Amino acid sequence: MAKICTAAEAVKDIGSGMSVMIGGFLGVGTPDSLVGALMNQDTQNLTVIANDTAFVGIGVGRLQDSKQMAKLYASYIGGHPETGRSMENGELEVVLTPQGTLAEQIRAGGAGLGGFLTPAGVGTVVAQGKQEIVIGKKTYLLEMPLKADFALIKAYKADTSGNLIYRLSARNFNPLMAMAAKVVIVEAEEIVPVGSFEPDQVITPGIFIDFLVEGGK
Asked: Which InterPro entries match (predicted)?
């Protein structure tokens, strides 16, 4: 059963140099209380896996503001100008990946797959250093799964057993990340007793969840 605690308690074991998945889409559906708690404990040299770095002062962009990232896997960094500058200056290693490929890498990590083939990026800089495989005269890239030490995700509702419901853009990356990390920390707008919502409403089962934090309404 997931442990209900504060944001500070939930992230206290995230140490410098660890890998963290953070859900959300341009700041929407991002667990802001958890990101704030991570900033406050001044953890450094993080490897962050997220769709984007949002904007200055928003979402994952706050970790860019605080210079806590050493490596970033993302599909878009254009909203936060400092991310591009940090990449050009060699301060931040950025692995840019097509959005669908990034989502599938995370899904593959959670499903225990060894990798997958995709035509996205063939003939572009995305293909550099990657194995190409030809099937039926069509070229594909072999993309490897992504996993992390921790995942920080945002849900609409959670019951006390950790079963989750999402809404709007929070449903994009958060459910995938909940399956692809060793420790999963959820920021839920509301934590309710078991039985408060129907079983077929559950998107992420509580078996994947380690910590629950209420907040971010």
From this structure: 3-oxoacid_CoA-transf_A, CoA_trans_fam_I, NagB/RpiA_transferase-like
How far is it, in rounded angstroms, from Cα 151 to Cα 156? Answer: 16
Q: 3-state class of 130 per DSSP?
A: coil
Question: Domain with 187 in it: what CATH number?
Answer: 3.40.1080.10
Tens of pLDDT along 53-90? 999 999 999 999 999 999 999 999 999 999 999 999 99
Q: Are 116 and 136 in contact (CB under 8 A)?
A: no
The pLDDT score that the predictor gives to residue 215 is 87
Structure tokens at 207: 């078996």
Beta strands in 104-161 (DSSP E): 116-118, 132-135, 138-143, 148-159
Number of domains in the chain: 1
Instruction: Provide the domain limits for residue 182.
Output: 3-113+145-214
